[in-house]
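sorry to bug you again but im stuck and you know this stuff better than me. what follows is a protein written twice so to speak, once as letters and once as structure tokens for the fold. id like you to explain what the token line says about the fold, in plain words if possible. anything you notice is useful, everything is just below.
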Amino acid sequence: MTRNSTSDLLDELGLMAGAADAARDIALSYFRRPIHVEDKEDKSPVTVADRSIEAMLRGRIAERFPEDGIFGEEEAPRNLESPRVWIVDPIDGTKSFVTGHPLFGCLMALLDGGTPVLGQIDMAVLNERWQGARGRPSTFNGQECRTRDCTALKDAWIYTTNPFAFPGASRAAFEAVAEQARLTRYGGDCYNYGLLASGHCDLVVETGLQPFDFLPLVQVVQGAGGVITDWDGRPLGLTSAGDVIAAATPALHEAALKHLAGQAPHA
């Protein structure tokens, strides 16, 4: 039997907050200190900090909710047939982490029946945390947060982490959106979605993400009044290809999709 009411999820929210506190301690104990960096098969970096944090997160989840599944970046998935599946990304932005840049985060989410019902973005160095829960407003450091009331691309402040990540026709699609924007900025990883939820930017467009990159963002964005989908406007789930758009308002989301729909390189 699933636990999906707001009151039921308070225990899970508490687990996420406590786990993020512990993840901060681990991350900061390694940050800006000599650390061995390995390259995974996809050439992305990984460190003992990533692996230690994920092991801690998995241990806390398994102890409190042993029947739930877990899907993370550094270890094999567990019990994905469960109605409830936790998503964990120990360090989103490992490239930032290993180069001393403070914009890396720890991400967690809970899926119920394949749908994200909880999400959390925790920025260890900045002491900033966003939480989202189905049926509740999203919060930033415990206070409600809201997206900005931006409805037109000409007024939008846009972020993407890496403009060179868009292959083929998707580059032109992103540039068509960016050319109409008031301002376009680069970098940020998961931090961009927190900024969007707090009304500091209006649109985030990404490609090639993994479920542990984007599923923890869903409830944070939606609970703040925003919209987050794939490039064709479909809800995000474990099988989504990883081409993601998050917008401050439905109108802005629709305006951006006119350029992006059908252009996703990983669909």
